[in-house]
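Target chain:
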Amino acid sequence: MSRLVCVSNRVLVPRRGAAPGGLAVGVHAAMRDRAGLWFGWSGEVAGTTGSVASTTREGITYATVDFTTAQYDRYYKGYCNTSLWPLFHYLTDRFRFDAVWHEAYRAVNLSMARALAPLLRPDDVVWVHDYHLIPFARCLRELGVTARVGFFLHIPFPHFEVLRLLPTCHELVHDLTAFDLVGLQTDADVRSFDASARHLLGDSATLPPVAAFPIGVDVEGVRRESDAAQSSEAVRRMVKGLLGRRLVIGVDRLDYSKGLVERFAAYQAFLERYPAWRGRLTYLQIAPLSREDVQAYAAIREALEQAAGRTNGRFADTDWTPIRYLNRNFPHGTLMGFLRAAQVGLVTPLRDGMNLVAKEYVAAQDPADPGVLVLSSLAGAACELEEAVVVNPHDPGSVADAIDLALHMPLAERQARHAAMLERLRRRSIHAWHRDFLSALESSGEANRK
């Protein structure tokens, strides 16, 4: 079996107590099956860059490079998070472009490719992740690397009419054709890519295979964690603090694409429309800080604190706080325990490639008495979790009605919805995701070399 080399903007070395994100969960699952090399940015900003530091844990080698301050500002904060991230999430009012950022994006990709190339073997399988590294395969090819190289985009691929706002959109799509396989989250993303390639490259362009590989979760692992967490001190304290009240939960990175400001407004609308629930329900929102030094994220943090303050100031009582809003990380097992305890999982991003919290909420539930998932129609997960209560996150009234519907849903209906979603999650688990992608990549690489 060929060695697997995973490449991502950020390399996350496992550490005790951390709650890994979707990319980290998926990559570690693949690496455990095919021990190899994970390469990318260390997360450190230093005066110089270029040298590679490596460490090995549990059979996986983690190789990292540092960024300079200029690279961090122009490549990461600039092009990646102020140009590509909002555009790919259809948040065009937040989109900004700067030619200097774009130049840094190309330069960092080439610099990282140069750092990785000497570490590669001819028969390696290279798996590149996410929007930070779209030019990476072309950079490797320019350096003479012939290994099979695949790409997976963890965020949505925008429709052409949105993508064309990017002055370098032709180059972006052209860069993707240097991969042996392009994996996207949903069939809608595949259609968007096909349309953009046709518009920008022409019908005669040679494209790599492009297919949907929806990322999943480790269903049995989540279930074990949620079962074990019931006896943990953190979950016991949380349940005790509810004083018998129902629980609505949201777990999201602090990011404007997650629709948290809109969600807080919807919860206030819920308390206004359904006053009988006042004092009987608590909404727990866990939102770890994200990209604190990017101005847009500081602004959303302030907006959420003000929104929570307004709702709590208006509706709270001496023994009841309507919103518990926490900007902190919890161990993954503790989070699964919190999800298990909640009667309603509120997952309402304005746009999301997939959203694994939605899937983890379903997997964490007790099949005998499951909670109800309220899910944004604009999350990729909505294509699979059809039995969720699906809402438009821009309509606070409909989200408020959905919360009330979920809280009143009969047990038999909750069980039937949950069973259908859980069965689908088991078939499309995190393990199936990486096996299917790597199998397709190896087949594509073989075909492309004949």
Q: What stands out?
A: The chain has two domains: 4-216+430-444, 219-426.
